Amino acid sequence: MPTAPHPQSTDELYQALQENRRRPYGRPRTVTAEELVDAAEQFAEPVPLVRALLELQEAYTYGSEPRKSPVVFARLLTLFDEQPDVFDDRLRHTLFWRFKWVANALRALPEIPLASLRQWLTEMRDRYEKAGLGLQPYYGQAYQLAAHTGEDTALAYELWAGRTRTRLSDCEACEICERALYHLAAGDDERALRAWEPVLAGKESCQEEPARSFSYALLPLLRAGRTDQARELHLAGYRGCRRNPSMSGEVGRHLEFCALTGNEARGLELLAENRNLFDEVDSPRELFDFLTGVEVLLQRVEHLGHGELPTAGFAGRTWTVTGLRAEVRERADDLAARFDARNGTTAHTDRRGARLERAPLLDALELTLRTRTLDDAAPAAAPTTRTAPAVPESLPELILRARELDEQGHPDARACWARLRTLVAARGYTHPDDPAVGSLVHLHADLLDDEAGRAREKDEFADAAALHEEAAGLYDDAGQPGCAAVARACALLAAAETPAEPPAEDADGTEARITALTAAHASMVRLHEETPGLTPHQEARLLRLRATVLGMRLQTSGSEEHIAPLLAEVDLLHTFATRHDIDAQIAGALLLRATTHAMTGDLPAALTGTDGALDRLRAHGPAWHLPRALALRGRLQLGLRNAQAAHTDLTEGLRLAADWPADTVDTSRLHSDLAGACLHLGRPDEALRHLTRSAELDLRHGSRFDAYCTYSNAARLSLDLGRVEDCIALLDSVLAEPDVTAGELDDRLVAQLRLTRARALHAGDDLKAATAEFVALAAESAGWDDDPGSHAMIAAETAVLLGESGEFGRAREAADQALAAHAKDPRHEQLSNCLRELARLQAQQEGPDGLAGARAFLADAGRIADEARAAGYEAHGRPLDAALAYEHGRVNAYAGEHEDALTALEKALALLGEPGQDQEHAGEWAECVRLAGAMEGIYLERSAPALTRLDAAVSRLTALGHTEEAEPLASLAARLRDEE
After folding, report:
1. CB atoms < 10 A from the CB of 251, how many?
2. pLDDT tens profile 16-39
3. Distance (Å, rounded) from C-alpha 688 to C-alpha 673?
4. ∠ CA 630-574-619, rounded to 5°
5. How far out from the chain centre does Cα 548 lie?
6. Cα 196 to Cα 217: distance, rounded to the nearest angstrom
């Protein structure tokens, strides 16, 4: 906990109080506020103590410590009674406002007798009357007490709601919520939602609103059929209350919403994110609301048969859903009984019972881009697959069936090998004495070879190579030279794929990889030639491996000299497989040939070849190759800019892939490719669904880095589409994954995810949270010595957000960091844009007082423009010199330096040049003319030249067809003529 140095003067105290107000509510802020009260007591004058006590009461109130808030207020009230002159109008207003805070705190404590609550309201009324203040706030508190106890609410409501508001009334948003809750309690959803409309539409807000209203409105919206709005308010409202002890009741209602909409898995995820609330909520009323919402969720999860799932709960032990539900039920029942005993009613028990008895309102409502189920929430969720294939019961039949399927390359071979692995590992296994089955050594070799294949699929190439070699040795011992040759060829391929430390002259390892693949091919050819007695299937597999390794070599090198050898091997494979009628290898050869054409850039030939392969597969099989062939054709169609055909093929491939085990086809890649097709077709929402599905599949299959990269792409797309809350919710979920929180994921990728989230927060008008995240990212990226350009961009964005917050000192520091990084890795346009925006913000917010700082930012932007010009850099947007001159004009205009502004704008116009057909350039030129006309005609009172300028510009733009751009200029000209 922080122990700040005690301020030695009142100025230092006020500065410390201001700094503490920037902190989020919680124990660190509260502890600092307590220390500042101790510090304030050393000063002779009472005002510092009053201000420090007010800050402490606020920390207790919004930090969910209602027991302490009334104690602090009692000290303030004593100071007011003893020294009323110390309280100026603002302090006096604050003091009387906080009578309501104390009433709210006392209601939250069941140990406070009902008579004491009523006595406090009488004290409030008497003091308001004595001070000549209106009593509407008193009646508001009287109604809230009645609503709390469940007695005489109608009368109390009329006495409050019918009175005129005063300066001390609760804010409009809070009063709207109270009115809506009154109607909701009466069972009138429609009237409640009508009352809530200004808050739900974002027209009214405060410290607690709209998050409080959002949480209460979720279920009425669902009952009214307004599911899309309920979804939006859940995402936005949850973000406004999560992890906040003073809004734990709101969190509980969001958990309840998840439970009643088929989003139990998301509910458990949110519960884990809010595990702090179990121990940090000191308000019994807030805890009661929170725990009831938690129990609604846990009850639903247990009802669905997942009571043994692990879940977050009270500190000190691990919890399952069933165990936590029992604990929560006992505590919440106790709180309800205590409140009802104090109030002399059954209101809390009844309300709790009503919440627990609610049936789900929807079977499934898609709340986020990352839709998950309770099966996904299991510690080791297995991917959903088709029904497992039947395997023979007889052990000899099972062994022979596994080898037969493996020879065909059939996906169901895996299930047979898995069953055999279990049987062989069991105590007391007896191997069949059957010549057709062969020895136990032969079977051990088979199992090792299957394990090696699975290791290679996970990119564990070194392990795969070792396992294949071990299998080959066992095949030799079992007298199976053909099987041994195939296993050794597989080992050669895996070894060539194993990353090796490249020599210094081969920085990216390309040459070393080409050399390894070439050597592997030569070894395979020798192995093939030197192994006698190969069966046709074994020989075909060796030919396939030879072609595969040359295909990988061409993919690595891109060299024309590697094309012919590959095609020659493919022809050998196709000829051999055709002669022996081996369907799987015929299809493999056709697909390899098509892929070779694709790698060489001949997409039409590749498409023709894929068409042939698909015709062959449909006629002769094997059917499990169809999804892969369709996926290839879909990618080729994308390359040929036929997005609709690509979408058709990829969709069909995805449909057929469902007929086979999950590891048969790369369905994650299919979803990713489909996302690309959807984007080309202008269907971004469908693209988002495919991206998130692709990421989730990668996550399930252990490809976590790929999964997070795809999630990053999905988040950026959702932000580009303006789906801000979707973006934030997705990233909040992804950033809460265990390997992310444990620091096991690549730190740059995590930073990219956080950066996108910070931009989304900014787009969602949460400037405080966005700025905090940007500041943290700028500090971290400062240590990226290998990537100063990224740090420059992050620091520049950070500076702009600090400028938007009015913190221009810190903005200057961040901008200087960006400039220092830019010197190492130039980012001319981004830095220029940042500095110009900072100059505009400072001049706009501070006027003449900010002119010097604004001009300093523009001077830096000028130096960057000079550097860019010297380096021959061309901006993607407006030319940097023209943009700089225009910003000089705006900055001087904000500061009241109108002559300088006009001069700068005329320079900007000269640099921009006359408009032409380009609409964007015409718009920039028109805005520059408009501002110059305003400076000249309005502020410098030279209407004649201003009108000449504007009329000429309007004529020019109209003649070019830019009528929309001409309208503001014509409007300004009309205004100047009217003023004449």
Report:
1. 29
2. 999 999 888 888 999 999 999 999
3. 12
4. 45
5. 39
6. 8
Which has the closest alpha carbon to 301: 273, 287, 317, 320?
Answer: 320
CA distance 150 to 348: 9
H or E element at residue 627 = helix 626-639
Rounded Cα distance between 619 and 895, Å, is 79
d(CA 185, CA 188): 7
**How much is the CA Rg of the chain, to the nearest whole Å?**
36
What are φ and ψ of residue 319, in 5° steps? -130, 145
- Residue 23: phi and psi, rounded to 5, are -75, 150
Q: If we measure between CA atoms, which residue out of 894, 893, 926 comes closest to residue 909?
A: 926
**C-beta of residue 447 within 8 angstroms of C-beta of residue 424:** yes
pLDDT for 382: 43
Give the 3-state secondary structure of residue 322. Answer: helix
Cβ–Cβ < 8 Å for 909, 932: yes
In the three-class reduction of DSSP (H, G, I as helix; E, B as strand; rest coil), residue 975 is classed as helix
Rounded to whole angstroms, how far apart are CA atoms 457 and 703?
A: 11
φ, ψ (nearest 5 deg) of residue 310: -70, 150
Q: Are the C-beta atoms of 63 and 246 separated by less than 8 Å?
A: yes
What CA–CA distance (Å, rounded) separates 954 from 748?
A: 50
Name the DSSP letter for residue 387. Answer: P
Residue 85: other Cβ atoms inside 10 A: 7
Sign of CA dihedral 179, 183, 184, 188: negative
Distance, CA of 673 to CA of 595 (rounded, Å)? 16
- Cite the DSSP H helix spans in 498-582: 510-530, 536-557, 563-579
Q: 980 pLDDT exceeds 90?
A: no
DSSP state of 937: I
Which residue's structure tokens are 């949460």?
766
At residue 384, the pLDDT reads: 46
- The number of angstroms, rounded, from the C-alpha of 717 to the middle of its chain's C-alpha atoms is 11
What would the two tokens of residue 558 be?
Answer: 């891109």
Q: Report the half-sphere exposure of 442 (CA within 13 A, side-chain side).
A: 19
Res. 760: pLDDT tops 50: yes
Residue 390 has a pLDDT of 74
Residue recorded with tokens 């739900």: 200
- Which residue pairs, CB below 8 angstroms and at least 24 apart, start in 196-200? 198/172, 198/173, 199/173, 200/229, 200/233
How many distinct helices (H) and strands (E) make up the chain? Answer: 48, 2
- Cβ atoms of 293 and 252 closer than 8 Å: yes
Per-residue pLDDT tens digits for 520-563: 999 999 999 999 999 999 999 999 999 999 999 999 999 999 99
pLDDT in tens, 643-662: 999 999 999 999 999 999 88
Residue 200, pLDDT above cutoff 60: yes
Cis peptide before 2 (omega within 30 of 0): no
Please write the tens of the pLDDT for every residue from 410-434.
Answer: 999 999 999 999 999 999 999 999 9
Instruction: Identify the pLDDT of residue 387.
Output: 58
Tokens of 519: 């050597």
Q: How far is CA 892 from CA 15, 131, 645, 802, 839, in A?
A: 32, 49, 56, 21, 10
Mean of the pLDDT values across residues 493-511?
A: 78
Residues in the chain: 980
Task: Name the band, by pLDDT with cuts 50, 70 and 90, for residue 150.
Answer: very high
Q: What angle do CA 284, 109, 177 make, to 5 degrees?
A: 75
DSSP string, 949-967: HHHHHHHHHHHTT-HHHHH
Residue in the block written with tokens 């190492």: 824
Of the CA atoms within 13 Å of residue 691, those in its CB half-sphere come to 25
End-to-end CA distance of the chain: 66
Q: How far apart are CA 491 and CA 505, in angstroms?
A: 28
- What gap in Å lies between CA 224 and CA 233, rounded to an integer? 14
This prediction has a pTM of 0.85
